[in-house]
């Protein structure tokens, strides 16, 4: 549920505007809930004349999902890459909201000026097309905003991580590095998306029954891997779930989907021999309305799972979703369907799109910021990120909570509780 504000010279720059799912609206109660939620934009919407631009770093829901719903309260131009723009336009068309939103496409690696902010977009590796880090330059200093990232030397989609791009930042004198903390509790390095492809091939190719893989619809590289695995194992690939179909449609529109990976119409899947079926389905987090839940409950119109079919979870378990996932797994096992989760195997059937401690250490040493500002994680993750930064030679670490103001120049400090940081429900 990312929503970041950078302020300078009386103006604000917003970076990302995302949603979160299935959480209490207020930390003190478990009863007031909403399926989809966004950060409360009251602080900036009350002074929207000072908001010069909104920048979207990539098209994941926790970075872009709230924008069509909150934009009428913000009214600022939106800058994003072509793939994120395609996803955003599809969201607007689906919701019927924000049809007059000005969307300015910036090529990956491009530059734009928004009020007093000069923004350089930097290619980075992550689990979606065209992920961007940002170098935000003002007269008071420079901020390197990593957004979501990892160091992938062999991605399925896009170019490999290039250290030299980030080593050059050290020569520019970076005031602060605002850095992803998602995997800061994990030692070593994250595995490549290519390692995940090889693991899934190892599991699927010799299997003699239907295979259903569930994962995040936005991971186009993972979907391409499964398309190649389908061809190598003599299977037909089908997509179950509106979000999955929409993402692949956007990937095709932007030239990311290989022409030699065909998709079969969903209504044909149920008539194929089991050993010729590979389905990719939404619902890895146990979402009640998703395709996998319908399969587990025999409510899917195109396919009925049978004993000894295999369901592979090629996705992380997002904290808070344990009960939903457990219930769905129980339903699958009650049907005598085989279930393979990451905890069941040493093979990397899922790899994260976020950096472990080894990658964090390297990037801090490449960039050499004066200040580390860990974000995107719970308190323990951000504390671990700060410790990595300290050991990597970053002199100051600023830790805070949602709504805190980090003053980076001229006197560095954190003002607690500067802005209200509640949540609002999104009706989609």
TrEMBL record:
<keyword id="KW-0694">RNA-binding</keyword>
<keyword id="KW-0378">Hydrolase</keyword>
<dbReference type="Pfam" id="PF00753">
    <property type="entry name" value="Lactamase_B"/>
</dbReference>
<feature type="domain" description="Metallo-beta-lactamase">
    <location>
        <begin position="1"/>
        <end position="200"/>
    </location>
</feature>
<keyword id="KW-0479">Metal-binding</keyword>
<dbReference type="Pfam" id="PF22505">
    <property type="entry name" value="RNase_J_b_CASP"/>
</dbReference>
<keyword id="KW-0862">Zinc</keyword>
<dbReference type="Pfam" id="PF07521">
    <property type="entry name" value="RMMBL"/>
</dbReference>
<dbReference type="InterPro" id="IPR011108">
    <property type="entry name" value="RMMBL"/>
</dbReference>
<keyword id="KW-0269">Exonuclease</keyword>
<dbReference type="InterPro" id="IPR001279">
    <property type="entry name" value="Metallo-B-lactamas"/>
</dbReference>
<dbReference type="InterPro" id="IPR055132">
    <property type="entry name" value="RNase_J_b_CASP"/>
</dbReference>
<dbReference type="InterPro" id="IPR036866">
    <property type="entry name" value="RibonucZ/Hydroxyglut_hydro"/>
</dbReference>
<dbReference type="InterPro" id="IPR042173">
    <property type="entry name" value="RNase_J_2"/>
</dbReference>
<keyword id="KW-0540">Nuclease</keyword>
<protein>
    <submittedName>
        <fullName>Ribonuclease J</fullName>
    </submittedName>
</protein>
